[in-house]
Amino acid sequence: MTTQSPPPSRASAQLSNTKTTVEFRVALAAMAIVALLPLGVGNAYWLGVLIVSMYFAILAGGWNLLAGYAGQFSLAPATFAMIGAYTTGLLNHYYGVPPLLGIVAAIVVSGLVGLLLGRAVLRLAGPYLALTTLSFAEIMRLVAANSIDITRGDLGLGVAGLLDSRVGWYYLFLGALTVLLVLFYLLLRSKAGLFLQAIRDDEVAARRAGVDVVFWKTAAFALSAAASGFAGALYAHFAELVTPELGLIAQTGLILSMVVIGGMGTLAGPIIAAFLVYVLSEWLRDVGGYQLVVFAALVVIFARFFREGLWGLAMAAVRRWRQA
Amino acid sequence: MSGIDVDLAVNGLITGLFYALMAIGLSLIFGILKIVNFAHGEFYMVGAYAYTLIALALGVPVWVALPLAFVVGAALGWLTERTLMRPLYAGYTSWGLMRDEYAVIVTFGLSLFLINLVDKVIGPYAYRGPPLVETSRIVLGPVLISGHRLLAAGIAIAVIAITAALIKWSFWGQQIRAVSQNRLGASLAGIDTAKASAIVFMLSGGLAAFAGALLSPVINASPDVGVFPAIKSYIIVVLGGMGSVPGAIIASLALGVIESFGAVYLSYQYRDAFGLILLMLFLLFRPQGLFGEKGREV
Amino acid sequence: MTLLSVRGVTKRYGGLVAVNNVSFDVAAGELVGLIGPNGSGKTTLLNILSGLADPDAGEILLDGKPCQGLTPEKLAHRGMMRMFQLTRVFRRMNVIDNLLVAGRALGLKPGEALDRARSLISELRLDAVAALDAGQLSGGQMKLLEFGVCFMVPPRIALLDEPFAAVHPTMKEIMGGFIRSRHENGQTFLLVSHDMPVVVELCPRAICMNAGAVVIDAPTRAVLADARVIEAYLGGQAA
Ligand SMILES: Nc1ncnc2c1ncn2[C@@H]1O[C@H](COP(=O)(O)OP(=O)(O)OP(=O)(O)O)[C@@H](O)[C@H]1O
Ligand SMILES: [Mg+2]
Predict the structure, then answer these.
(1) Most buried among A290, B134, C82, C86, by the most CB within 10 A?
(2) Which residues on adjacent β-strands are paired with residue A100?
(3) pLDDT class for A7, splitting at 50, 70, 90?
(4) How many whole angstroms separate alpha carbon C16 and alpha carbon A121?
């Protein structure tokens, strides 16, 4: 061994399974805290902020599965939220399909579209994949915005509500987020977690080892898209309005910043960061509106200097503290 | 060809010239670092503002403000390369894996940063740049064109020609092409690859800013004014074969004309989607572009 | 009994015939050396055998069943396991997980896979670095790890592409011992190497390629003494 390579650190001295479990527990603890917040936060505005945070937490978690674990850097997570929102929105608006059924349909439709996209881009990587998914995202948004006869374009499509109480919505979103968190955990703890990361690191080596790369890559696209579509559909009925703005590239930028700041390829980081980023951004909005400037700068700084994100920084701090 | 068609073709070609100013830089960056610069549109935006504000706020003549916009863009390009692109090649071996992701994240982040910074500091309102000449409509046979646009097109042709010549024949142009073909080989041959990357970023920042400045009397400077030109240049760079400068120029002109006709004969509503659909189809079925050869597999 | 049968396999890259009408058989339990000067087509042949390149002509039989054109993952499941000349590991996963990927993909139960991984780690003397990410290993350790990946589930035939290149003598020892002991237990190998002493020591039989074609296929000592082989090496780049 060369003298430069660092000594085994305690965090990596664990099986990745154990690592995932630690992350899962921390994320669950964070969800427990979020569950208690409405006791203190009576303010409808801040409840709304937290609800939107959870919307983004689902999106960040779903995209992290695809980009952070499977290494497929798609630039379309917000698009799938938009697709989910329009699925239930159109079904509801035109056929009076009840929201719950519409949400299920949204999960299925966005998952299927994700599967098709995943199939299509199977052989693309790096800048080619980023460009293809980016143009997919823009095409979808342009179609939604310009099909005015059907979607009413930028005016937005009014859809039915689901719950009357804001606190009810709060716990519905929290439930959805927690269910997804558990699902992702079970998935990542299984062989799927190993396979996705293997594909991220070296596709050829993964195939040599017998991993069915086509299947797992497509599955990652479909699952991540379904999660996004689910979030979008919930949001549609929460806001009672669906607009093409859900699919703006800037929304993807926000999701990306949450994942990067939280720590790509960790279960807890992106989800927790979604709350931090969004709540902080609402607060910054109040004190001068610099929120997006700050986050964009943070993304660049984190990517440049702290690639492991907040989660990595926290783990390093814990290690130092233990060693002291 | 009817008169309308001639008008469409000429105006499409002129639009294509402005696209080319953008796309050449993007293509050079892809060539040398094998990344897509998602902040390319913001170089354009900064150029539009630089020209407009220097000319209007400082009262400087437009003919001074125009080259100054290039300088501002070049400075921004240089700064971007120095601060953010270094890890892509400067010995961070363990970054190998993260390379593509890193490039997308930082350029995407930089793009958001610049858009929102300008939005906060200068404001969300659009500023119209002063035209180079005040002549309004010039009629050339069936073609109807504004004096500024005609003059700007002429300048664009000159700048594109100079750039192409520099890349083909100048010392640094040759070095840049060497690095683009084989970075390791070039560095073994004693070429300063870091300097080559810096020059590419300066040049492409400058060109994009120049495009923004030239178009600012037509498309007003606003924080997100660079988004569309950027998307156009992605399309062009893919059509022209990623990394190829002649390919980028030809594809720019082609896209300008296609869009100009498409908006009239196909659908105005979906005009912005055509290019993107083309982009997707190309990436999926012919990633080497219209002119490129299929590369050797690794 | 013939395990692997290569029949008239040809692969062209443009005008270059990288592999030219190559035929040979490998019996179960054999350890065959594959030698030849740089650019003679050894890696290309292994690429074809492991499904990473499609042959332009010819047939490959594994256990009597044709298997050309199958995907690398299918071939891995059928027991064709290949080690790369340029080491390939999962750089952001730790050593144990690297092994587990292969174990789980090839159908081992979680507990079984973990046991195997542990025993391979100690056999390959990777204990001290077992918890490191593979990207942090030295070049030789990465090769050892790749060895381990190939043997998580003992393959029908192991295709090794220059495992000894640029490796410290101690590690060469470990690898040599590993190959020998597996071979004694009936493991079949096709071993590409430029290291003639090792080939002589390990492989009873050798095949020499030059300019894409098989020059000679005979007992190793006879191969090394053959005038055509000496000519091929002295002639430098394949003519
Ligand atoms: N994908 C490819 N495209 C074009 N030519 C290729 C390709 N792969 C291999 N070749 C050519 O085929 C020939 C055989 O190469 P190969 O890598 O199989 O040789 P080798 O025997 O493994 O050499 P070495 O001992 O140096 O590893 C070489 O001339 C090489 O340039
Ligand atoms: Mg070889």
Answers:
(1) C82
(2) none
(3) very low
(4) 31
State the ligand closest to the CA atom of C44: 1
Tell me, in angstroms, the distance from the centre of ligand 2 to residue C88's CA.
14
> C166-186 pLDDT, tens per residue?
778 888 888 888 899 999 999
Q: What is the dihedral of CA A231, A232, A233, A235, to 10 degrees?
A: 90
Domain total in chain B: 1
Query: What are the residues whose beta carbons fall under 8 Å from the beta carbon of A296, sequence distance 6 or more?
Result: A253, A257, B109, B110, B111, B112, B113, B116, B117
In this predicted structure, what is the pLDDT of residue C230?
77
DSSP character at residue C131: T
Asked if residue C67 lies in contact with residue C78, where contact means CB atoms within 8 angstroms, the answer is: yes
Predicted pLDDT of residue B260: 84
Helix (H, G, I), strand (E, B) or coil at A115: helix
Nearest Cβ partner for A132 among B227, B272, B283: B283
Instruction: Sort strands C157-161 and C188-192 into parallel, antiparallel or unpaired.
Output: parallel
Burial of C46 (0-12, 13-18, 19+ CB in 10 A): buried
Q: Mean pLDDT for chain B?
A: 85
Residues in chain A: 324
Strands B137-140 vs A241-242: parallel, antiparallel or unpaired: unpaired
pLDDT tens readout for residues A95-109: 989 989 999 999 999
Query: Could you tell me the residue range of the domain that residue B117 belongs to?
Result: 3-285
Query: B251: which residues sit within 8 A by CB, 6+ positions away?
Result: B23, B235, B236, B237, B239, B240, B289, B290
Contacts of A6 in chain C (CB under 8 A): 136
- pLDDT, mean of residues A28-51: 85
Q: What percent of chain C has pLDDT over 90?
A: 44
- Left (φ > 0), alpha (ψ -120 to 50) or beta: where does A57 sit? alpha
Q: Is residue B189 part of a domain?
A: yes
Separation of C72 CA from ligand 1 center, angstroms?
A: 19
Equal CATH topology for C1-79+156-165+182-239 and C86-154: no
User: What is the rounded distance in angstroms from the CA atom of residue B137 to the CA atom of residue B153?
Assistant: 15
- Distance separating alpha carbons of residues C194 and C224, to the nearest angstrom: 12
Residues 6 or more apart in contact with residue A220 via CB below 8 angstroms: A65, A66, A69, A70, A72, A118, A196
Answer whether residue B169 is part of any domain.
yes
Assigned domain for B59 exists: yes
- Amino acid letter, C171: M
What is the helix (H) or strand (E) element at residue C81, kind and residue range?
Answer: strand C80-83
* Surface-to-core class of residue A64, CB atoms within 10 Å of its CB (0-12 exposed, 13-18 middle, 19+ buried): buried
Helical (H) or strand (E) element with B277: helix B271-285
B199 exposure class (CB count in 10 Å sphere: 0-12, 13-18, 19+): buried
Q: What is the pLDDT of residues B240-295, one digit of tens each?
A: 887 888 889 999 999 898 888 877 777 766 777 778 888 888 888 877 766 655 44
The pair of structure tokens assigned to B160 is 């594109």
Question: At B185, which CATH number?
Answer: 1.10.3470
In contact, B32 and B197? CB cutoff 8 Å: yes
Partner A contacted by C24 (CB < 8 A): no
Q: A229 or A35: whose pLDDT is higher?
A: A229
Which of B34, B83, B108 to mutate to test binding with chain A, by most A CBs within 10 Å of its CB?
B108
Residue A119 neighbours by CB distance under 10 Å: 13
Q: How far is C124 from chain B (nearest CA, A)?
A: 24
Pick the ligand that lies closest to the CA of residue C83.
2
- CATH number for the domain formed by residue range(s) C1-79+156-165+182-239: 3.40.50.300
Contacting residues for A80 by C-beta, under 8 A, at least 6 apart: A62, A110, A113, A114, A224, A225, A226, A228, A229, A232
Positive or negative, the Cα torsion across C168, C169, C170, C174? Answer: positive
Listed residue (A177, A145, A128) closest to A27, CA to CA:
A177
